[in-house]
Inverse folding.
């Protein structure tokens, strides 16, 4: 219902309002623009440009999460490597590849080399237990056609050839190593991709209001009233929309709660920050060409799995290591130190308290990480690059992540989730995305779920167009090897990933 005390004048009426100019809003906007080109769209972004928070390339790992190398997606459970989550994430990344390919063919995206490039994905283990795990993981994944061209080796000469920077000065005798790898991995610059999406959106008539922070979203009959403030002038505007998507990163939770969405009751957010070490020595950058993921420290959240990454950003090859865990009460990198405290409500207090009791290992890990100085960070880097010299590296603040705390019953009360959670109201007129990894990599699959939940009555009408954008829609690629091969060849060619 309308807020009787809200007499602010409506300045605009739109069909679709997108809060946040990151990869999620950009992806959903592109989908809806193709399905309903007559619908008007507006994007609100509190910063002065697109993709400057979680979608920014230095705030985002940019792995193109497809579970090729990320060990936290293949847990070792009583001696058996469980690949269920890896299969699920890999399949969702194939959906991303199909959508990006379609958008390139339709001229929405214009240059794949700006946002996606081929980079080997490598899983790395050291010590007898990890070597055994890497081998078993390789055997489990290589049996699936979703993980093509995978190889394994525990030979030091192969290691030295594949990863020369990591081999220099390494004591292979006292600390055995193993790697599995595939040459079909990718590095994705989601910032560049988002900019391409939004450039096309503006050309198609979408209005983008940068420097506008959404203060509130209120129900107004069958529609929504969005009050936004120009952060530079202080002027407020109210826009009424038929459908609202909240892709505001860490701020999504409070905006959905303020909108009165019942499904968000009891949910809370746990902010986790981080840092990277970025290499400043071009000679070292040229010595390493891979994304190498290892095992996380005990108690570390999955998003803190250490990795040594080749990045391709704005045409420049770079190298980063991390992330190092940290903590701040901010819900966004450019947020407020009051964010966490303002987010605590009577309905989610038990969720916070429940997680506080259960996640003592995480708290201990974060405290240890916060206490690390630069030299300590370089010492951790030496587990990957034994001869690392701090003079070749600089610290870069990573993006802020807010992990979802989901309300559950006694005795846990709250469950800390490390994936993404879609929230929508019963009528499907408002939706939002909470959480982090694998995040941007599976944005098209996540936004397809938004369509299914919020526009179910249109899915039959939209089916032919959806199948154009997602040829494997409704088909399990893990079970259909022929279709997988066709889609792989199509997307490899369109995204220009063949080496």
């Amino acid at each position: 219902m309308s807020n009787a005390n809200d007499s602010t004048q409506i300045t605009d009426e739109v069909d679709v309002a997108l809060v946040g100019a990151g990869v999620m809003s950009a992806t959903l906007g592109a989908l809806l623009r193709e399905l309903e080109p007559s619908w008007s769209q507006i994007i609100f972004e509190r910063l002065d440009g697109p993709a400057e928070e979680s979608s920014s390339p230095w705030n985002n790992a940019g792995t193109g999460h497809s579970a090729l190398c990320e060990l936290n997606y293949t847990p070792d459970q009583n001696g058996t490597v469980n690949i269920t989550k890896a299969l699920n994430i890999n399949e969702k990344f194939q959906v991303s590849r199909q959508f990006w390919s379609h958008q390139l063919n339709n001229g929405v995206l214009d240059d794949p080399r700006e946002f996606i490039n081929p980079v080997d994905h490598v899983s790395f283990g050291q010590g007898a237990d990890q070597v055994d795990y890497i081998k078993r993981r390789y055997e489990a994944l290589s049996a699936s056609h979703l993980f093509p061209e995978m190889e394994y080796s525990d030979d030091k000469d192969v290691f030295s050839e594949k990863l020369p920077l990591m081999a220099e000065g390494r004591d292979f005798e006292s600390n055995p190593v193993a790697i599995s790898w595939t040459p079909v991995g990718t590095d994705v610059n989601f910032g560049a991709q988002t900019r391409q999406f939004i450039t096309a959106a503006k050309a198609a008539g979408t209005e983008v209001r940068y420097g506008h922070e959404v203060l509130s979203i209120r129900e107004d009959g069958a529609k929504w009233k969005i009050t936004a403030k120009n952060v530079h002038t202080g002027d407020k505007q109210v826009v009424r929309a038929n459908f609202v998507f909240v892709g505001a990163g860490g701020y999504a939770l409070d905006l959905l709660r303020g909108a009165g969405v019942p499904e968000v009751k009891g949910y809370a957010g746990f902010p986790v920050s981080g840092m990277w070490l970025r290499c400043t020595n071009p000679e070292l950058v040229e010595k390493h060409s891979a994304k190498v993921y290892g095992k996380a420290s005990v108690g570390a959240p999955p998003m803190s799995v250490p990795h040594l990454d080749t990045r391709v950003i704005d045409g420049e090859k770079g190298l980063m290591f991390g992330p190092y865990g940290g903590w701040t009460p901010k819900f966004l990198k450019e947020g407020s130190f009051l964010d966490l405290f303002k987010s605590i409500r009577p309905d989610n207090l038990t969720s916070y308290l429940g997680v506080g009791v259960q996640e003592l290992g995480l708290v201990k890990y974060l405290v240890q990480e916060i206490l690390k100085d630069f030299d300590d960070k370089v010492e951790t880097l030496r587990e990957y690059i034994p001869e690392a010299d701090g003079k070749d590296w600089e610290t870069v603040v990573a993006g802020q992540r807010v992990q979802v705390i989901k309300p559950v019953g006694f005795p846990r009360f709250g469950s800390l989730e490390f994936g993404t959670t879609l929230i929508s109201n019963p009528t499907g007129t408002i939706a939002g995305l909470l959480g982090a990894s694998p995040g941007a990599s599976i944005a098209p699959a996540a936004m397809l779920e938004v369509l299914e939940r919020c526009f179910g009555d249109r899915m039959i009408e939209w089916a032919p167009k959806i199948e154009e954008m997602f040829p494997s829609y409704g088909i399990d690629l893990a079970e259909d090897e022929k279709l997988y091969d066709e889609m792989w060849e199509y997307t490899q060619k369109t995204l220009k990933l063949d080496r």
